[in-house]
Design a protein that fits this description.
The chain is built from 5 helices and 9 strands; from the N terminus they run H-E-E-E-H-H-E-E-E-E-H-E-E-H. The protein is α+β, with helices and mostly antiparallel strands. It has a single domain, classed as Alpha-D-Glucose-1,6-Bisphosphate, Chain A, domain 4 (2-Layer Sandwich). It has a 9-stranded antiparallel β-sheet. Helix 1 crosses helix 5 and helix 2 packs across helix 3. The longest helix has 27 residues. It is globular. The chain starts with a helix and ends in a 7-residue tail after the last helix.
Length: about 200
């Protein structure tokens, strides 16, 4: 079940602060902030800078090769507005089986922004599945220099209640591991975790 969460965790990525140092890539590369200023909802904001050109980061999020290099074993991408990103952590699995994760591409602005929404499978708690229509991940891409890119992820749709609060640490840690994996892949050509 944990592997399924890691994929979806990327999606639900601002006044309590949760910042943690993780992974082999040091300097606490990822900052995580939970915003509870809206009484009913929480937004998980996570951001990091990676030492590669913007196009490399964009390709990691929008291509089959990109997803399979840092996020999942198998990916199938139909990259367009109302398109889908289908993934599977199981190397022996296939797209379409029960372990497939489906991310809907709500909209995008090339090399600037990407909004995703997950179809939550049976592997997720019922209370999350009931809120599925409210959950989005907005990812912003900012070119800092020709060789440095900032990524900001907003996980939108967490409810401000005990059930979600108990999951936030899990989501934060999982997202941070995924982002460290992305940074490792982009900066060294090797992801830190193999799926």
């Amino acid at each position: 079940m944990k592997a399924y969460f890691f994929q979806i965790i990327i999606l639900f990525s601002t006044s309590s602060l949760f910042a943690q140092e993780t992974g082999e890539i040091s300097e606490s590369r990822i900052t995580s902030v939970v915003d509870s200023s809206n009484a009913d909802n929480l937004v998980l904001k996570q951001f990091f800078t990676v030492n590669v050109p913007l196009d490399s980061v964009w390709n990691a999020y929008t291509t089959k090769k990109g997803w399979e290099s840092w996020a999942t074993s198998i990916a199938e991408i139909d990259f367009k507005v109302n398109g889908v990103i289908k993934t599977n952590y199981n190397k022996e699995g296939k797209i379409g089986d029960e372990s497939t994760i489906v991310l809907h591409i709500i909209n995008y602005v090339p090399r600037r922004a990407l909004t995703l929404q997950a179809e939550l499978s049976t592997h997720f708690p019922e209370f999350m599945k009931q809120d599925e229509k409210d959950m989005f991940n907005m990812i912003l891409f900012e070119e800092i220099s020709p060789t440095k890119t900032k990524v900001i992820s907003y996980g939108i749709g967490y409810k401000h209640n005990e059930k979600y609060m108990s999951l936030l640490d899990f989501f934060i840690q999982g997202n941070e591991q995924s982002y460290l994996n992305l940074i490792s892949y982009l900066e060294s050509g090797e992801s830190s975790v193999k799926y």
